[in-house]
Amino acid sequence: MRADSCLGRIIAALGRRAPIPGRSSAYPVRSSDYGIPRNTAIGRVIGAVTRADSVSRGVVVTCRADLRKAQLAGLDLRHAHLVEANLFGANLDRAKLASASLVSAKLDRAILILADLTKANLNGAFLSDTDLSGARLSGADLSRAFLRRATLRGASLVGARLIMAHLNKADLTGADLTSADLTGADLTRADLTHSNLTKADLADAHLTNTNLTGTKLGGVLWTLRTIWPESFADHILARSDEIRPGVYRVRGGSERDPSTLTHA
Description:
This protein is low in regular secondary structure. The chain has three helices and five strands, in the order ααββαβββ. It has a three-stranded antiparallel sheet.
């Protein structure tokens, strides 16, 4: 293994001892460019992988890393392993997290504006009050994720998995949810104004008091257990076809019938 390789630098960094209180040290207690103390394990890892050439693709970070309120804006963390990491309040503005593993990570109140989370694994992640405006989440797995009051204005969630996701009071204004799987998702009081749900799967989803003003719904799949806004249930039933017992598809949204049902 080359000592100057990414992995070599990480191993070397972790092999250094943190300074002992009261003794002089070549490693003073100071923050890195990302707001993390340099004398901590994670600080030494980030220092190692960022030295000379910025963070490399495929960085491995230990599980349950403590990165609370860390300044990680623009950081390249593609394919990073951040399972159960604590990123509460972290600044990940425009960060590159494509294909990263963030299973059960704590990202509440984090800033992920315009972040690239394409195909990221966020299964069971905590994202309440998180700002994901304009974020790219196409193909991402957000199953059972907690997105209460999260801001997803203009976010791209094409083909994303949001099975059993908690989206209570989430702001999805203008979001693209084309072909997204929202089976059993809780969208109670969420704002889907002018969002695109074409061909999305809303089987067993809860949309109690959800704002569907201007929402594109052509081709949406739903079941008798799907809970629509009270004033909208008859409207959607009249414009749907039963494709198998108890399962319906909203007309429109196909190549043969490009017109899309929009709830005014």
